[in-house]
Amino acid sequence: MVKILVEELGLEVVGGANGLNNKYTGVYISDLLSWVMAKLQPGSIWITIQTHVNIVAVALLAEAACIIIPEGAAIDENTISKANEEGIPLLRSTLTAYQLALKIKELSRLE
């Protein structure tokens, strides 16, 4: 579940806290929204440096488990509001996308 991911990786819950019980099935890293819409598998954790409001719409369309913003990037208030409205967990980490993927893989081995 996303909430376990938050606890284990020390992720900041920026928005969409009511979706923390979502289950995740994998990880996808990309910043090109059209590519993500075509490739993201339902239930995936989406890691992107994009922070504008459109990421929430893409996450909904692709049925992402959550969105993680790496490297402590600032997130637009409209994006946070939309994530809250739609129940898409919007998380932030100081780690890079690569570091996050490695830690998520390691965490998945422990489950």
Automatic annotation (TrEMBL):
- Please report the name of this protein according to its UniProt entry: AraC family transcriptional regulator
Q: Which InterPro entries match?
A: DRTGG, Ser_kin/Pase_Hpr-like_N_sf
The signal sequence is none
* Native organism: Alkaliphilus serpentinus
Pinpoint the DRTGG domain residues.
5-106
Gene3D superfamilies (alphabetical): HprK N-terminal domain-like (3.40.1390.20)
